Amino acid sequence: MHIYSPYTYHIAWTSIDKHYSGVRYAKGCNPNDLWVSYFTSSSTVKKHRDLYGEPDVIEVRKVFEDAYSAKRWESKVLRKLDVLRSDKWLNANYRDWETDRKSTRLNSSHR
Predict the structure, then answer these.
(1) Each residue of 54-81: pLDDT tens digit?
(2) Segments in the chain below pLDDT 50
(3) What is the pTM of this model?
(4) What's the pLDDT score for residue 16?
(5) Parallel, antiparallel, or unpaired for β 18-24 and 7-13?
């Protein structure tokens, strides 16, 4: 395995049907760090950890050779899942690397 391996991941609390999909591409990142030393940068995920404990689903979805490929894949997945319009996804925004624009949930009452 590479020392630097960007990746996408999925975490979930299945008992409350809440999910989060993310991408990690920081310098030196490695999939083995997920939920060991890296717990996402999402404040919404942090709040859910405080309220509901650790998620019961923690999985690396795909590993990439470079950051750009990981970011493009993640934006494609988030767009396909329509996370900004779904109550079950905690994602409040994402960068659409296909069109290089930021997409943001307009109504935050869904979270």
Answers:
(1) 999 999 999 999 999 999 999 899 989 9
(2) 1, 106-111
(3) 0.83
(4) 98
(5) antiparallel
The region, left, alpha or beta by phi > 0 then psi within -120 to 50, assigned to residue 82 is left
Q: If you search the block for the tokens 């509901």, which residue do you land on? A: 52
Backbone region of residue 28 per phi and psi (left: phi > 0; alpha: psi in -120 to 50; beta: other values): left
Nearest Cα neighbor of 69 from 25, 33, 30 is 25
- Residue 46 neighbours by CB distance under 10 Å: 12
Angle at 25 (CA atoms; ends 65, 35), nearest 5 degrees: 110
**DSSP sequence for the chain:** --SS--EEEEEEETTTTEEEEEEE--TT--GGGBTTTB--S-HHHHHHHHHH-S-SEEEEEEE-SSHHHHHHHHHHHHHHHTGGG-TTB---EEEETTTTEEEE-S-GGG-
- Quickly tell me which residue has 């960007």 as its tokens: 6
